Amino acid sequence: MTEHPTLAEFATNETTDSRQTGQPSTDETVTMTADERVATYLIEDQMADLTDAIREAVQNGIDSPGSSRVLVSISPERSIILDDGAGVDLKSTEGRRNLSVLGAGSKQRSDDETIGEWGIGKGAIIAKGAVRIWSHDTALCFDYRDRRNSGPWADVSGRDGQLVDAEHHLKGMLVEIDHYEDEVPDPDSYRWRRYVRDLRKRFAYVQSRTGVSVVINGESVDKGDPLEAVTDSPHPSLTRETEDAILALEYTPHEGLDIYSNGLYVTTKREYGLGGVVVSKGNLTLNFARNDIQSGCDRWQRIDSALEQARDDLYAEVSDDRLTAESREVMIETMASESASDEQWADRKLFQLATESRISLEEIQAAPKIGWVDSTQKGADKLVERGYVVLDTSDAATQRLRDLASDENISIVVPETFDVGKQAESEGVWTGYHRIEDESQLNADQRRYLRFARVLAAELGIERDVYYGEASADAWTDGRTYIVITDSAVTSRQRAVWMHDLYLVMLHETAHETSSQDRPSHGHHFESTYRSLVEDPGNRSSFAELVQQVVDEGFASVFEEYGVGL
After folding, report:
1. DSSP alpha helices (H): ranges in 286-357?
2. How would you class 505 by CB atoms within 10 Å of its CB: exposed for 0-12, middle for 13-18, buried for 19 or more?
3. Which residues have a Cβ under 8 Å from the Cβ of 509 and sit 6 or more positions away?
4. Which class is 435-562 in CATH?
5. Integer angstrom CA distances of residue 85 from 30, 69, 105, 112, 411
6. Sheet of 162-179, strands arranged across
7. What does each C-alpha distance from 217 to 53, 76, 212 come to in angstroms?
8. Domain extents for the chain?
9. Which residues are within 8 A (CB) of 505 and not within 5 positions of it... i.e. 6 or more apart?
10. pTM of the full predicted structure?
């Protein structure tokens, strides 16, 4: 007779009271139980994709007593995971229970000898395909979604599994997942290649911690000793070993820090402003999906403390001009924390002036007054050149300093502020819009921009002289006789981009029939005029032909043909 064990929800113990009374007894025990929805969640929702289910099966192989190797074959159709451990006696009550009851298993969360901890991974496995779990002389089969109508899965569905006699004896355990079609991305897509790549990453340091090798599609995934992970890094790096973890850090903030629990990949953290790997010596307390660390994990708290100290030591080796925006934000947040010393990083040039040069907190605090501006404030750069401290809040770390300085609960103190606009006027460093009379002083890029703008004026029928100038605006005009462009008229040095930038800027200024200095009118009449110029088929055609001519002949030939010079 065929046995049908059930992959059931967490076992429940309901305490009942035989007394019939309307008032609860003060010594009555109430047990929190789990219903059908919990079992459904643990099976269908706890894991993100197919690789999570395969990971669970591989974990079980790694944890199997006596296991030294786990072989994995993964294809779009199916995955097979085979270990050489002791296996499970599926004919025994305990063996069946461990593989059919969610939350049951031989592993303990506090046991660093195994990676698994919840006893619910089998739920994730059966959600991703029809499954056969074969060990010794017996196999246990599930078809959770009832998609298979033949073989060992013909008579099973949902959480009902079927025990069948195996073809021959198998020492360890084999898990076969016959993938459900909607769990697998297009085999020819980048997503499938990413699946395989990500699966390899998950077990990169398992062998170094457990001694069990993992081989996926014929290739070992082992990356060796984590202490050697940054040996050949071209960036500043640091390795450190504590009682709780191995730290191999490098200064690559954009890549993030890969965290491994006892050799198993968990997540990538970017809040430290570092790259590299952290491999814990023993299990971290993880969430159900095993893709994040639970709050309150004592081991991680100790690792986190060691990480912060190692990060500080590594940052000390990085020059100020190499610090990225991410790193500088991390450093300012650390400076504002209660645990930081008042002097920590105060001498590092972490903040940005209006001239885009850097300045330290010590230098800021030494100034009698400071100004805050975004990158477009008129005259701010000239004030900096005269010795004023004008900070550019378009830089994220500098904006964060401003936020923290205004927080009464933060100990960072900065000087009083001054009005940058008024100070610029009083110093005479902002005289408004300045046309450059001597065009020989322009650099090569500026000369090219100016000459192309003059070609545009001729081609588009704009009857105004074109000059180069200095201002915070992209350009300005008197509305009748001239247009002056500035450096900010172009957003990129890429030819196709800046030519289009100048096309739009020239039409924008042409749409102004009065002066566009200071507070130009951008009302309905202007918007209508500008839109008609941009959308005019003749203008668009002329611009396209001009761009093609530049591509075919080069700037020199075009400038000569139009007779534009400086």
Report:
1. 298-315, 325-336
2. buried
3. 464, 475, 476, 477, 483, 516
4. alpha beta
5. 41, 8, 16, 18, 58
6. 129-142, 162-179, 78-83, 69-74, 213-216, 219-220
7. 17, 12, 16
8. 36-216, 225-315, 320-427, 435-562
9. 453, 474, 475, 485, 489
10. 0.68
Amino acid at 373: V
Tokens 């994040």 appear where? 292
Indicate the Cα dihedral angle 379, 381, 383, 387, nearest 10°: 180
Burial readout 225-245 (b: 16 or more C-beta within 10 A, e: otherwise): ebbebbeebebbbbbbebebb
- Is the pLDDT at 464 greater than 50, yes or no? yes
Residue 473 contacts by C-beta under 8 Å, 6 or more apart in sequence?
A: 433, 486, 488, 516, 517
Domains 36-216 and 435-562 share a fold: no
Predicted confidence at residue 4, as pLDDT, reads: 45
520-550 residue pLDDT tens: 778 888 899 999 999 999 999 999 999 999 9
Q: For 275-386, where are the alpha helices, taking DSSP H only?
A: 298-315, 325-336, 361-366, 380-385
Q: Do 209 and 263 touch, CB atoms closer than 8 A?
A: yes
Q: Which fold has domain 36-216?
A: Heat Shock Protein 90 (3.30.565)
Q: How deeply is 392 buried, as exposed, middle or buried, from its count of CB atoms within 10 A (0-12, 13-18, 19+)?
A: buried
The answer on pLDDT for 15 being more than 90 is no
Tracing tokens 């599609």 back to the chain, one arrives at 217
Could you give the C-alpha distances from 272 to 32, 334, 401, in angstroms and in order?
39, 10, 18
